Amino acid sequence: MNIMRIRPKQGHVDTETADTLVLLHCEGEGLSAKDAAVLDRSLDGALRDLLHSKEFEGKANEVVLFHTHGKIPAKRLILVGLGKRDNAGLDQFRQAMGYAVKRVRGAKSRAFVVAFPSVTPRDASPLDVAQAMAEGAILGSYQFTAYRSDAPANNELTAMTVLISHNSDLGQISEGIRRGVATAEATVFVRDLSNHPSNVMTPTRIAHEAKTVAKETRIRLKILEQKDMERLGMGALLGVAKGSHEPPKFIILEYHGAKRKDERPVVLVGKTITFDTGGISLKPSENMDHMKADMTGGAEVLATIRAAARLKLPLNLISILPVAENMPGGRAMRPGDVVKTLSGKTVEVQNTDAEGRLILSDGLAYASRFKPAALIDIATLTGACVVALGQFAIGMFGTDTKLKDAVRQSGLRAGERVWEMPLWEEYFEQLRSDVADMRNIGGRGGGMITAALFLSKFVGDYPWVHLDIASTDWSERERAYIPKGPTGIGTRLLIQFLIDRSLTH
User: Fold this and answer.
1) Can you name the residues that pair with 474 across neighbouring β-strands?
2) 32: Cβ–Cβ under 8 A, 6 or more apart, which residues?
């Protein structure tokens, strides 16, 4: 998917020439907003009539299109509701723009102008609103048509102009657009990688994508092959990969943007299972096709380091991707097998479908070599997360209060919320093994917690947060700026966390 160009421009709604003009409007505001009042005069009271008849009330995500018949230079006007002013947070602006671009495309427009709203959420700046608008527009226009022979040609939106009344806001709005484009572009990248089928998006293809990302400024790449992993003793990752003909990869990308080269880095580790059959502990066939997206965590840390480089963030960042395919081949790992991890700890594999925590155990142990200032792993880890939290929250665990709070706040800003779950040592009783240091499952009760507790044994004393995105990585229906299928949720949270951290450290 080509990313639409977004630029700010000083101008006025009643004189701007455009194929389509978009106006965001709050419920119950009448014509108090300047742009609405100006347009209403030029349109001979048409907006007043719409509001009076309640054909358009400004309710959240309400959309109305009408033709201007030459009364203003814009051919069409699309009104999008923000809901009541007091409830219009940043995510409402994202949603409004997501619905707006769908209506623009439906009108066969390829470029449009949107008036920057006079309404801003409490504690949000014009920069924040511009970022949210850019994100909503790009993500709402997302399509994946790589394998569609009947895909319509020339239906991508090419350009969006953000119209501002005063040049004094230009600097903030320009920076907001820059950030919004970078975060949305990263999410689109993740969605694309996750949408490709697993016969295309193999571990080798993931390595190829990492090589492309490594062409960005200040990024270095190292790829460990199977022999390297054997030499290091990554028995958990190698155990998962044994049943597949696809060779595993262990990918390390380093971005150096801090002024001090020795500044301790943020390290991100992403689960990258390019297809998960469950191995010998075979999954049910229903919805197994979704398992092509079991590499979403890895795709997100790959996209995040690319965004950090493009935004030139002043920090050091490392992204680690343990990559494998989990298959039930003749050499596959069996229930009851014992593997020795990179850390030296041994694990009894009681269920080969609990493979994500195995590859992450080696990824987290390797991450500790960089002495991270903050360590975050992100993974489509447990079905238990879906049961506990549904589709609107990312499960969060961690060992450091300050880091957890920072992730939580960044999630609120990004519209990708986290919900903390307990990481109590009592749950480790469920992971005790008779033959090894621990086993890789802890039974049905508290499955999300025991998975996180398992991972905690491989992070050392470094500040650590675990994000379980199994509840949010796939959507069964299309929403405002969330497509049906792989969502890329978690990407903007990570990037926002890095932006916020770079502003406070």
Assistant:
1) 486
2) none
Task: Read off the pLDDT of residues 426-475 as tens digits, 9 standing for 90 and up.
Answer: 999 999 999 999 999 999 899 999 999 999 999 999 999 999 999 999 99
Tell me, letter by letter, the H, E, C secondary structure of 196-224.
Answer: CCCCCCCHHHHHHHHHHHCCCCCEEEEEE
Per the annotation, the verdict on 283 as an active-site residue is yes
Query: Residue 63: its pLDDT value, please?
Result: 97
Relative to beta strand 76-83, strand 63-67 is antiparallel
pLDDT, tens only, 298-329: 999 999 999 999 999 999 999 999 999 999 99
Report how far residue 373's alpha carbon sits from residue 213's, in angstroms, rounded to the nearest whole number.
Answer: 23
The pTM for the full model equals: 0.97
- Per-residue pLDDT of 384-434, as tens digits, reads 999 999 999 999 999 999 999 999 999 999 999 999 999 999 999 999 999
Closest CA to 62 of 113, 31, 28: 28
**Position 505 pLDDT exceeds 80:** no
Report the C-alpha gap between 503 and 406 in whole angstroms. 12
122: its two tokens: 């409490």
Residue-level pLDDT at 504? 87
Residue 119 near residue 26, CB atoms below 8 Å: yes
Q: Which amino acid is at 2?
A: N
**How far is Cα 223 from Cα 203, in angstroms, rounded to an integer?**
11
For residue 503, what are its two tokens?
A: 């502003």
Selected catalytic residue, list 264, 283, 334, 345: 283
User: Is 357 a known active-site residue?
Assistant: yes
Q: Which of 32-36, 78-82, 213-217, 300-304 has the lowest mean pLDDT?
A: 32-36
- The owner of tokens 């290091």 is 232
Contact of 408 with 418, CB cutoff 8 Å: yes
CA distance 113 to 129: 16
C-alpha 66 chain-centroid distance: 34
Task: Delineate the domains of the chain, giving CATH numbers in brackets.
Answer: 5-165 (3.40.220.10), 190-504 (3.40.630.10)
Q: Which helix (H) or strand (E) holds 41?
A: helix 34-42
The encoded tokens of residue 5 equal 């160009």
Task: Give helix then strand counts, H and E, for the chain.
Answer: 14, 20
Mean pLDDT of 90-101: 98
Give yes or no for residue 7 having a pLDDT over 90.
yes
Residue identified by tokens 């390595």 is: 207
Which residue bears the tokens 């850019």? 134
CB atoms within 10 A of CB 44: 11
Q: Do the Cβ atoms of 129 and 174 come closer than 8 Å?
A: no
For residue 302, which of 495, 18, 92 has the smallest C-alpha distance? 495
Active-site annotation holder among 357, 404, 457, 501: 357
